[in-house]
Design brief:
Protein name: Outer membrane protein assembly factor BamA
Distance between the termini: 93 Å
Keywords: Cell outer membrane, Membrane, Repeat, Signal, Transmembrane, Transmembrane beta strand
Pfam families: Omp85 (PF01103), POTRA (PF07244)
Subunit structure: Part of the Bam complex.
CATH superfamily of the largest domain: membrane protein fhac: a member of the omp85/tpsb transporter family
Family: Belongs to the BamA family.
Number of helices: 12
Strand order of the largest sheet: 19-20-21-22-23-24-25-26-27-28-29-31-32-34-35-36
Radius of gyration: 38 Å
Largest sheet: 16 strands, antiparallel
Number of strands: 36
CATH class of the largest domain: Mainly Beta
Number of domains: 6
């Protein structure tokens, strides 16, 4: 017998097979509410979804009296299922007719017209999925998400249109047509209410930048609400750390220009007064905690500009001291008393009992490559220790500082009992290796071809591995280095380095070959101090010495170089240490910093020498942080108890040490051959100031002036050779600099003028270098 196809057939169900509806009436008001009773239900239009499912969506239970309002609710419930774009519920005498039209299934999703944002980035934003039911509401939400993504890229005028292409009665293709627009840059960032700092200084604090000449490469000038929210915190931290405890951002106004091609961003701020520290002290509410002993551990001093960072650091010191003294569960409560008249904040650290909570366990998730132990090494807390929220926050910062993770969240939640917590560490890994090929330039060595490989998380163990090759016209370098930051699971850094260098000096009548192998360990000795111990093996050779001692001086190398080369290949062993102290490790003063370094290397075996080097660098910002002042002093001494140094052992100064001179451009020279001989001693002092030039801040161009003063001297035994400038004779050079922050790196252009030089010195009035930061 022929059957009607299922999708075209309307079914009639007896009431006792589907549902029982009882006809009744009631008077809730003077007007009676109409009710219905049906002997059967007819469902039409469904092909993919069966009848029982549709009746379940309707939600009419057996034995209910059905009113008109309840029939409307049933229709709404069927629509809410998201399976239909048409639903009609109609009483037809004793039959309830439900007519539906099913939404189609998405066969494929396409993206057309996009260039700035890749397909995979857009697809990650979509809620619509292939082989799922098409939802107009979801397609609208997807359109909004894509539009916002383009707005974050600065294309606020981009138009996204979702299009439906029907393939058959039950499937469609969903296509998002993208009409990209020009980038709406941030044309201006301005501030209202600022008095202590000008707009240029405040704009440098922000991550968001104004549009500039390099906007094709620098994308921070596009408007991003997320970045702007981060900028609010940066600006608040900037003012708070400079004593403005009451600083507030009242509002941030973001407007599009009339042409809709640029944003105008205005920060409305209220600075308040700058506060300094008044009286400081420590009180104790904990038995066994001597306030005087804890007060001696603080670093906050009366008269300092108030900074929350300084107080946080003191709290960390006091809590650490309490743990060392066996006083667990001690909390440090900073009590701040204001003196508005004197603009002072009196700070009292109160030692109070904290909650007795222990760490039950530390759970780590998300690390597919990095070993658990690498993350656990960043914790000073282990399972069973007293719970210290500050220590956990510091551990989270150390995990983020590793650079292994795109995101790292560390949170505490209640454990199996109220007095225990579980520390959850959720990380998202990111690439940690790099492979690069390119070219390098500096004024001393010229152009070099370089190739390098580095991996900061080798095999997920937190180890560092690097290879570098540099091939220049006059110099070839090969270097490999390895570091294990937590040897034996302790704060003990093991390092190994090996380098091989050859020179083919175009401006000298000899060549050199040097191999150095140096393993060592580095460990902290104080909050800011590090001590390193190392062993070194050096193998040096002087080759290609041109001429012969009988030849005239202009055709041969210096007799001292011939004597050095006659010794052949020399292997030297040494042991040494290096101590460094850097105030920036504590981060107490963001405006200034001091770095000290002192090292000594002692020759053992056949060579008996002591090589000493020291440096001191200081930096501070003045005039509302607009001007940066830097001072540096460096010195070195090489002394032999037996024998004398060779040219490969002595110090040489180049443009990185004292500007305005070529490599080996100053110091002792053979008066006859003009060969630079180096020196066993050197001393250099450098003064520098950096300042804005009044150009738009977004160009990244600043100016500077500098004064360098230094000397290199003492060749050692010069018997039979006329050596110039072997005594201490200082050179002085002044100059101006242009600093330009570019996508290729921070470039520095130096224009120099020698003030005190010697006749045989090799000077230069311009050089270009990659700028370095102190």
């Amino acid at each position: 017998m022929h059957r009607t196809p299922r999708r075209a057939k309307a079914r009639v169900f007896k009431l006792d097979h589907v549902l029982a509806l009882v006809l009744g009436s009631a008077l809730a008001s003077p007007v009676a509410a109409q009710t219905y009773a049906f002997n059967s239900v007819a469902i039409e239009g469904n092909a993919r979804i069966d009848d029982a499912t549709i009746l379940a969506y309707a939600g009419i239970a057996r034995g209910e009296t059905v009113t008109a309002a309840e029939l409307n609710d049933a229709a709404q419930a069927i629509r809410a299922s998201g399976q239909f774009d048409l639903v009609e519920v109609t009483p037809r005498g004793s039959t309830l007719a439900i007519t539906v039209r099913e939404l189609p299934v998405i066969r494929a999703i396409g993206i057309e017209g996009n260039r700035s944002i890749r397909d995979e980035q857009i697809r990650a934003l979509l809620g619509s999925q292939e082989r799922r039911v098409y939802s107009p509401a979801q397609a609208e939400a997807d359109t909004a998400a894509i539009t916002q993504a383009y707005a974050n890229e600065g294309q606020v005028n981009a138009i996204i249109r979702p299009q439906i292409i029907r393939r058959d009665a039950s499937t469609v293709d969903l296509v998002f047509e993208v009409n990209e627009s020009g980038v709406s840059e941030i044309e201006r960032i301005s501030f209202v209410g600022n008095r202590a700092f000008n707009e240029g200084r405040l704009r440098r604090v922000l991550e968001t930048k104004q549009a500039g000449l390099l906007r094709a490469l620098v994308r921070r000038d596009t408007y991003s609400p997320e970045r702007l929210q981060f900028d609010r915190q940066l600006l608040t931290d900037f003012y708070n750390s400079r004593g403005y405890a009451d600083f507030q951002i009242q509002s941030v106004d973001v407007q599009l220009t009339r042409e809709r091609d640029a944003y105008l961003v205005t920060f409305f701020v209220q600075e308040g007064q700058q506060f300094r520290i008044g009286e400081t002290g420590v009180v104790s509410e904990v038995a066994g905690a001597d306030p005087a002993e804890f007060a001696a551990a603080t670093r906050l001093r009366s008269g300092q500009v108030y900074s929350p960072t300084q107080i946080e650091t003191d709290i960390a010191r006091l809590e650490t001291l309490a743990i060392r003294k066996g006083l667990n569960f001690v909390r440090v409560d900073p009590r701040i008393d204001r003196d508005p008249q004197g603009r002072l904040l009196n700070v009292t650290y109160a030692l109070v009992p904290g909650e007795r909570i222990f760490v039950e366990r530390i759970d780590i998730e998300g690390n597919t490559t990095t070993l658990d132990r690498v993350i656990r090494q960043q914790f000073r807390t282990v399972e069973g220790d007293p719970f210290n929220p500050r220590a956990i926050r510091e551990s989270a910062e150390r995990i983020r500082a590793l650079g292994y993770f795109a995101n790292a969240d560390v949170n505490a939640r209640q454990g199996s009992t109220p007095d225990q917590v579980v520390i959850d560490v959720d990380v998202v890994e990111q690439p940690t290796g790099s492979l690069s090929f390119g070219a390098n330039f500096n004024s001393d060595d010229g152009v070099s071809l370089i190739a390098s490989f580095s991996e900061d998380n080798f095999l997920g163990r937190g180890q560092e591995l690097a290879f570098d090759v540099s091939l220049g016209e006059d110099r070839q370098n090969f270097r490999v280095s390895f570091a294990e930051p937590a040897l034996l699971g302790r704060d003990l850094r093991f390092t190994f380095g090996a380098s091989y260098q050859t020179t083919d000096n175009a401006n000298a009548l000899f060549d050199t070959e040097t191999l150095r192998i140096q393993p060592g360990i580095v460990f902290p000795v104080s909050d800011n101090g590090r001590l390193g111990l190392f062993y070194a093996l050096d193998i040096t050779d002087i080759t290609g010495v041109q001429g012969d001692p009988p030849d005239p001086p202009e055709d041969r190398a210096s007799l001292l170089i011939f004597e050095d080369a006659a010794e052949g290949r020399v292997a030297t062993q040494s042991v040494g240490y290096q101590y460094s102290w850097d105030s920036r490790r504590a981060g107490l003063d963001r405006n200034s910093g001091i770095a000290l370094r002192f090292s000594q290397e002692f020759g053992v075996g056949d060579a008996n020498f002591v090589k000493t080097e020291a440096s001191a660098l200081a930096q501070t910002r003045v005039l509302n942080d607009e001007v940066t002042l830097t001072a540096a002093i460096e010195a070195g001494n090489l002394s032999y108890n037996d024998g004398d140094s060779r040219i490969t052992d002595r110090f040489f100064l180049g443009s990185r040490d004292i500007r305005g001179f070529e490599a080996r451009g100053i110091g002792p020279r053979d008066a006859d051959t003009d060969d630079a001989l180096g020196g066993n001693q050197y001393a250099v002092a450098r003064l520098e100031a950096q300042f804005p030039l009044g150009l738009p801040e977004e160009y990244g161009i600043r100016g500077g002036v500098f004064l360098d003063h230094g000397a290199i001297w003492d060749v050692g035994d010069t018997t039979g050779v006329n050596v110039l400038y072997d005594e201490f004779s200082a050179r002085t050079v002044a100059g101006v600099s242009i600093f330009w922050t570019t996508p290729l790196g921070p470039l520095r252009f130096n224009f120099t003028e020698p003030l005190d030089v010697r006749d045989r010195d090799r000077t230069k009035d311009f050089d270009l270098t990659i700028s370095t930061s102190f």
